[in-house]
Amino acid sequence: VQLQASGGGSVQAGGSLRLSCAASGRTFSSYPVAWFRQTPGNKRVFVAATTWSGGTSYYSDSVKGRFTISRENAKSMVYLQMNSLKPEDTAVYYCAADPDGASYYYPHNYNYWGQGTQVTVSS
Q1: Which of 104, 24, 100 has its CA nearest to residue 56?
Q2: What is the per-residue pLDDT across 106-119, written as a single tens digit (0 to 9) for each?
Q3: How would you class 95 by CB atoms within 10 Å of its CB: exposed for 0-12, middle for 13-18, buried for 19 or more?
Q4: HEC assignment per residue over 14-40
Q5: Of 16, 30, 64, 101, which shows the fewest CB atoms inside 10 Å?
């Protein structure tokens, strides 16, 4: 599976962005997928994840109620709708797929990664 993230950019606080992650590979629709983010000098941290069907989603406390993860398996796409953006949301955002085990929250569990897309939120 290959993943390619896009949709990042610069926005003012309170604005919105939608990130997209395009996947290739027949087995993509069977994998849970997630978004992580990383700032310089810090570890990659969990943002959101969803199951293979998109029926159940999980969010970090810092984005709950503002971000929404979704997927379209027929198009091999994953999205992250980000509303009410804050300067602290500034980071490089990565999509990931196929976590080992039951936990979606740890980046080392994931077998496939996209290249990252920069999101910058100004105050």
Answers
A1: 104
A2: 999 999 999 999 99
A3: buried
A4: CCCEEEEEEEECHHHHHCCEEEEEECC
A5: 101
